[in-house]
UniProtKB/TrEMBL annotation:
This is F-box/LRR-repeat protein 3. It comes from the Eukaryota. InterPro entries: Leu-rich_rpt, Leu-rich_rpt_Cys-con_subtyp, LRR_dom_sf. Pfam families: LRR_6. Coiled coil: none annotated.
């Protein structure tokens, strides 16, 4: 792929590569990139020809990888690579990749990155389901940032599998995902290091908001933008439980009144950013 092998061979100290919008970048190119042994950060945004096979090669070769961005990599998903016991023909770099009849999920491949700290999978993760999340239990122990926005297949039960697999998680984005119920909020309470969570566009329940207020982690950033179901009672419980909040986004939360503003004022004295567009809480 346009000299990927030569690039990696001659520039052996590469720690960062951005291949976003490389529409002709394929699994063969990914196999070449896998030779970049010192690579720490990789962007493959809109590389629509890359599949689980290419990501698997990178997983094996780039053991120092810390960040990988797979936005809009539509062929990378949890459908897996159901493969037979033969060596992939074509690119010789695939020669040592033995394939069997077992389905290998995207998150199982990602689990091979021992020290990865950030995974960004919005929009393109429609195929990630319970089987994929189960694999996070086995790997990604150092994961700190996880973006799974717009993942319609993820349930609260599935999310519970992450709690034991990503104990270092600091930032989590599940915007436009499952409803924020009591059960979902409870399964996320074990992220003791969680500092930032985005729930934009999610349906939230009062019991779910109450559970968030009782989390052991002390949130610094919370986004409830365009969430339906946000009420004065629920928001008050959250801000009382997370008084160290620095950033709060309640854009388009139209059910709140001046009571919510009073609760924020009294509880969140460290607040540096408050977004409340399209809210009408009063004019006091």
């Amino acid at each position: 792929m346009w000299g990927s092998s030569k690039l990696v061979m001659n520039c052996s100290d590469l720690v960062e590569i951005d291949l976003s919008n490389a529409t002709e970048f394929t699994d063969s190119g990914a196999a070449a990139i896998a030779k970049a042994k010192n690579l720490e950060r990789l962007w493959l945004v809109r590389c629509k020809l890359v599949s689980d096979i290419g990501i698997g090669c990178i997983a094996v070769g780039c053991r120092k990888l810390r960040l990988i961005n797979l936005k809009w990599c539509l062929r990378v998903g949890d459908l897996g690579v159901g493969l037979n016991r033969y060596e992939v023909q074509g690119d010789p770099l695939f020669g040592s990749l033995l394939l069997n009849r077992q389905e290998i999920s995207l998150l199982k491949l990602l689990a091979a990155f021992d020290a990865i700290t950030s995974v960004d999978l919005p929009y393109g993760c429609f195929h990630i389901d319970l089987d994929g999340l189960t694999n996070l239990k086995q790997g990604c122990k150092s994961l700190e940032v996880l973006n799974m926005s717009n993942c319609p297949c993820i349930s609260q039960y599935g999310l519970s599998f992450i709690t034991n697999g990503a104990e270092c998680l600091r930032q989590f984005n599940i915007s436009y995902g499952p409803p924020v119920t009591l059960d979902l909020a409870k399964c996320l309470q074990y992220f003791s290091n969680l500092q930032s969570i985005r729930l934009d566009g999610c349906i939230v329940t009062c019991s779910g908001m109450k559970a968030i207020g009782n989390w052991c982690a002390s949130l610094k950033e919370l986004s409830l933008s365009k969430c339906s179901g946000v009420t004065d009672e629920g928001l008050s419980l959250i801000v009382q439980g997370h008084q160290e909040l620095r950033k709060l986004d309640i854009t388009c939360c139209r059910k709140i009144t001046q009571a919510s503003i009073n609760s924020i004022t009294n509880s969140c004295t460290c607040l540096t950013s408050l977004r409340m567009e399209s809210c009408s809480p009063g004019s006091e």
